Amino acid sequence: MPCPVAPASSGGSIEIVFATGARMRITGAVDAATLKAAVAALADGCLR
């Protein structure tokens, strides 16, 4: 299933709250691969 990707020029922000209580706030343009890896690590409980 393809992941939605915002255009690199977008300057919005999102906040993700994981089931473990960890929060991730992303603002501005981000690299999609880096964001995907960070979300995957938090979803698996690898980072605190």
Structure description:
The chain has 48 residues and is α+β, with helices and mostly antiparallel strands. The chain is built from one helix and two strands; from the N terminus they run E-E-H. It has one domain. The chain has one helix at residues 32-44, and strands at residues 13-17, 23-27. A two-stranded antiparallel ribbon has the order 1-2.
Short description:
With about 50 residues, this protein is an alpha+beta fold. The protein has a two-stranded antiparallel ribbon with strand order 1-2.
> Average pLDDT value?
76
Query: What is the chain-wise order of helices and strands?
Result: EEH
Numbering strands along the chain, what is their spatial order in the largest sheet?
1-2
| Count of discrete structural domains | 1
Could you name the key traits of this structure?
single chain, 48 residues, alpha+beta, two-stranded antiparallel sheet
Task: Give the SSE layout.
Layout: E1 13-17, E2 23-27, H1 32-44
Antiparallel strand pairs: 1-2
